[in-house]
Amino acid sequence: MAVYTVHEPPLRSGTTSPEPERFVFVRDGFSFWALLFGPVWMLRHRMWLVLVGYVAAVAGIGAVLHFIGLARVEPAIWTLLGLLIGFEAGTLRRFTLGRRGFGNVGVVVGDDLELAERRFFDDWIKRRPNVGEPSPKRPAIVPPQLSPGQHPILGLFPEPGATR
């Protein structure tokens, strides 16, 4: 079973409710494609800031390793960096979506993406108020009137009018 986080897009101008087609499901866990093709994977998901950070890290690490004479360990370093990108792929996508204004609206579990989407939207439809129907009005809560000299009390004790 895979775990997905669900991200709701920001509302477009002129709309009052989110568009279900634009929701993004991000799988939690290791990403094989991010391991093998890190920069291409970042471009594919439009993760510009993450890509800039990746390029800066690769250039900095490469320069430091070349400067101190450890260029022979570069393949091991690049492999470890690729593993890090693969393990943190979901987190990097969630970071990028958050920067774009997407809100995290839930977590859903499913065997695959289709089942996770179905489970989420079944629950989402149940939670949404029906469009066009008036929302039920909540009764106003009127605080009790205090006599002069009494102060509003928060918590369970002391209760007004209680004896000691």
Structure description:
The chain starts with a strand and ends in a 37-residue tail after the last helix. Helices cover 44% and strands 12% of the residues. The protein is α+β, with helices and mostly antiparallel strands. The mean pLDDT is 83. The protein has a 3-stranded antiparallel beta sheet, with helices on both faces. The protein is elongated. It has helices at 32-36, 38-44, 48-67, 74-87, 89-99, 113-127, and strands at 2-8, 24-28, 103-110. The protein has 6 helices and 3 strands, in the order ββαααααβα. It has one domain (2-127). The longest helix has 20 residues, at 48-67.
Q: What spatial form do the alpha-carbon principal axes imply?
A: elongated
Low-confidence stretches: none
Q: Give the terminus-to-terminus CA distance.
A: 58 Å
Query: From N to C, what is the helix and strand string?
Result: EEHHHHHEH
Overall tally of domains: 1
Helical proportion, percent range: 40-55%
| Helix count, DSSP H or I runs of 4 or more residues | 6
Task: Describe the structure using short key phrases.
three-stranded antiparallel beta sheet; 6 helices; single chain; alpha+beta; 164 residues; elongated
Short overview:
Helices cover 44% and strands 12% of the residues. By secondary structure, it is of the alpha+beta class.
What order do the helices and strands come in, and which of them pair?
Layout: E1 2-8, E2 24-28, H1 32-36, H2 38-44, H3 48-67, H4 74-87, H5 89-99, E3 103-110, H6 113-127
Antiparallel strand pairs: 1-2, 1-3
